[in-house]
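FAQ: What does a multi-protein file look like?

Like this. Sequence, then tokens, then the next protein.
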Amino acid sequence: MSITLRQRMHQDLQLAGLAEGTQKMYLRAVRQLATHVDKPPGRITESEVRDYLLYLKNERKYSPSSLKIAARGIVFFFTHTVPRDWVLFKNLHIPRPQSLPGFRGHRFRGHHRFRIPGTPYGIEAGRASGSARISCCFLAS
């Protein structure tokens, strides 16, 4: 990504009030797109963006949440920094990740608790010291 476009996108992200982490992810998404198509971002076509998003989904096997972050960064760039009126962005829909069927999640102190229907038991998932942790637990009513 050329320095001037990168700086301009960074300024646009700041003006939009996006968090610093989100800004970094959006900038990375556009940089990776430009690297993939081997072109400066301002010269990338709509079909190249479409092909790249399909590449991320089908070949790189991006999760829905990772694909959504990459797509939103690219859409931001082509709607704010280098405005393009592309049909792709009007029809783009990335579904939400699927949750476990029959479970209801409850967020509790950085953990997620899922009740197993019809029982007093559940599954607790969380992060401790940077590693994922899943355990079975008794959930009081």
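And here is the next protein:
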Amino acid sequence: MGSTNSLFERYLERTRRRIDGALDARLPSSREEPRPLHAAIRYSVFAGGKRLRPALCLLACESVLGRSTPALPAAVALEMIHTFSLIHDDLPGMDDDDWRRGRPSNHVVFGEGMAILAGDALLALGFQTLAAAPLDGTHIQVGRSSWSSRARSPFTCRLGTTATSLATRQGSHSLSVPARLSTP
């Protein structure tokens, strides 16, 4: 981000590191099976970016509750869902962009099928993260409606079998950039 001058830029930088740590903890390791799928997910999630959406989520929570920690799962979920939209937007059937944030797009590196699965997995993981997030007993009152929850909702993402099958058909994935791409 370069030199940070404003309070908001400094907040964004601190928050970006915090969100990246929370994403790293929430996402499966690229060494965990199915490796090609998890590598594709992590490739796009950690491709850089300001993390503006999750930062605004945390800032809103902090302004209401005086602390941002209760909103961390929602902030992480927002970033997962945003990254899903970027992966799918770059696909050949959509905008057909070969570059994202100065790097080859997910579908260029991992193939179109794996990119679709990575995006779908991020969307599912985003909703799973929201559904499983405890509200720390926080009671929310809006008008006459009231909602309180400590419940966890299980959600299973079954993309692993498809990813393994796809990787087997395509051979082992490679992080090499096709010759037709040289610079953005």
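Q: Is there any per-entry metadata?
A: Some entries carry free-text notes. For the entry above: The longest strand covers residues 139-142.
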